[in-house]
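Chain A, query sequence.
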Amino acid sequence: MKRILFLLVLINTVLACKPKTEYDRIKERELSSGKVVEDLFLDLRFGMGRKEFFGTCWEHNKKGILTNGAHHLMVQYKPEMPSGKNADMFFYPQFEENKLYFMPMEFIYPAWFPGNEEFSNEKLFQDVVELMGEWYGNGFFEVSNTDRSIRAMVKIDGNRLIRIFKKDISTVRVEMLDLRVKDISEMKKEDGAV
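Chain A, predicted structure.
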């Protein structure tokens, strides 16, 4: 009986000790560093309330930097892309207890149409990854499933997670999440994603 109990404990220990992924190691290191990064872009940041978010967007709107977008993410920005191509960026945050903690952004080339390789989602993905590198610095790394059919570029600075992936054939999505509030796995469950 002691041997069976010992074997069960050993098996459970081995299963619990599966190796951590690069993502897990970096996330653990960054969160334990105590570093807090709240800056997003255009004077927006984690922790700001709805009223401050709308006021900041309104000020940028008066200067012609932001407009109302015809998209489910309602604010539109036209960033200067590294490739020089025109791109639209749409964004609108989520709040928890009136504090901004999640910023989804979607990028689209307005000149995209099926079959035009110059404006493919692969070219857009490369363009967005380079833009995010310009905005947030080096340190992005690839995360993918085992057959690499789904992949994303990720960067974690302290509490700030940035994830870039192809949403569909014309759109690249960037998600910025405050890991002090929620983990990305919790966000997937809320969206009903796997």
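The CA atoms of residues 59 and 117 lie 37 Å apart. The longest helix spans residues 121-136.
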